[in-house]
Amino acid sequence: MRVWVAALICIAALDVFVPVVVAQDEHPQEQKPSRPQETFFSGNVVSFDSEKVIVTRRTLTLSWVTKTFLLSSDTKIEGTLKPKVRVTVKFEKTEDGDRAIHIIVR
User: Fold this and answer.
1) First CA to last CA across the chain, in angstroms?
2) Half-sphere exposure of 13 (CA within 13 A, CB side)
3) Which residues pair with 58 in a beta bridge?
4) Do 10 and 3 touch, CB atoms closer than 8 A?
5) Which range (13-17, 51-55, 82-86, 98-102) has the least confidence?
6) Is residue 22 part of a domain?
7) How many domains would you assign to the chain?
């Protein structure tokens, strides 16, 4: 008799939890609208002019990575750009190349 009661309790418990799990799977995940991917790059300034800034850094494998960032009138620059200064560049990828959004001179 106790075995039957225990079996009925288990079956009743499963009936309560199974519909909840199935109900969660029936609703598809809503996708967030895509926006331009913004990323960061830190390194030392190699050169710059009014249209672009070139920044380089050394990776863990001791190889050099160099990136060129386009400057626009919307680019915010904190500090004074000079060769060999350390900077962090927030940028977005565009069809024309990587466009600097914000440059912080360290």
Assistant:
1) 77
2) 6
3) 64
4) no
5) 13-17
6) no
7) 1
